[in-house]
């Protein structure tokens, strides 16, 4: 998680993905349900050309349920197979095997025509850092975690986990690089803790999060910190700082003298958000699906 992503890292990650992709039939792509587009790397489309794909809306337990369904519908509309999951608790994982069969039915049919029966589908898990790849592999593979051992043609280090007779999983996930070019996407990734906080300073990051919450979830801030938006017009980042100071006041974050410790309040807010103490929140919405 503390990787500093720079072009060298991205090139390395891309090369590793290209190598792994040669070995598999199916990519299980994890995205964060709170920001499904920002947490997705568009290069997966070219990297995964010709491979079957499943999108997992992971951390669905942390995202607004109304939008989980809207996002699932959106990805289905784009021709993807989608499952909402909570890799930590295991919710949703049972559906995956059936979806794998569906996503790979062309390959299975091709094999059958060639007289190859019961060759397992080989899959790789991929996603940006912190999206839940390792947690997913551990939960999904569970006790089936017995590895099948190295096989000819498999790069040393890559092991296959046999999940059942029709599915094998590469034990090493494919790491995709986060989207930095798009500033808003980068900010959302910082909110959810998927890239280093120091993309912005913590107070600015918190003020930006407040701007977002004031627009889409104002009640959550009112409820948790007892602040009222009634006489406030939060239009830009300066409004975010005003609220941050109110949070500092509400939480007794004080510096020596009478100044408020907004740096401490920023850490507190980001922590409350990331631990779902502000409730389940989705940071971006499928086109035309945003509810008022
Ligand atoms: P990665 O391999 O893609 O980098 O991600 P990893 O599995 O390490 O998961 C990153 C963090 O996200 C972990 O929390 C993990 O428990 C959490 N996580 C993964 N999937 C889910 C999910 O569906 N729901 C929720 N709520 N959390 C999830 P951590 O705090 O870094 O570690 P830990 O304290 O859980 O060990």
TrEMBL record:
Primary role: Required for a late step of 50S ribosomal subunit assembly. Has GTPase activity.
Residues at which GTP binds: 58-61, 130-135, 174
The name this protein carries in UniProt is Ribosome biogenesis GTPase A
Q: Which GO terms describe its molecular function?
A: GTP binding; GTPase activity
Question: One cellular component GO annotation, for this chain's record?
Answer: cytoplasm
Q: Which UniProt keywords apply?
A: Cytoplasm, GTP-binding, Nucleotide-binding
BP GO terms, sorted: translation
Q: Which residues form the CP-type G domain?
A: 10-178
The organism's superkingdom is given as Bacteria
UniProt keyword Cytoplasm present: yes
Which family is annotated? Belongs to the TRAFAC class YlqF/YawG GTPase family. MTG1 subfamily.
Localization annotation? Cytoplasm
Q: Which PROSITE patterns match?
A: G_CP (PS51721)
Q: Does the keyword Heme apply?
A: no
